[in-house]
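Lab meeting tomorrow. Look over both lines:
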Amino acid sequence: MKLVVAALALMLLATQEQDNPEYQHWANCKPGSWVKNRMVMENQGKRIEYESVTRLLEVTGEKVVLEILTRMKKDDRAIDQPAKRHEIKAKAPPQGKTIAEKDEEITISGKALKCRLYEIETEATAKAPKVNLKAWMTKDIPGGVAKSEIFSEGMTVPIRTQALEWDKQ
């Protein structure tokens, strides 16, 4: 789950190292802010679901520090992952290019949210396929991600992520 969120933020960057949007979305919150997300994907015809709670632990001018708790649900089983700490730097190198951007209002968990929809794509490399991303970003949710869809070559359905609950302090 943390990789998806990190990919979302990194893909929002332009062509030179600059302010990291993922950092900015967390830095405008106070420690103790949190978001619960659900990510749904399919692997070899089987549905896999992850739920994560990401809590802001620390904010400085150089980084934010997060704690991420993740639970994987597959078939009738639930597997809890150990808590992980994740640092996000204030500056980051470029990733991907924005191919479309517009304002859009969406409803998440019964709440109308004003979002900025970004459509981003990355170039294919020897190590990674081309990735297309749609991300609905808002300042109302810690971390900024209201929902997203990630699609790459070889996938039959996109990986979908959506915020379920949050508390911005």
Remarks:
- The chain has one domain: 2-164.
- The mean pLDDT is 89.
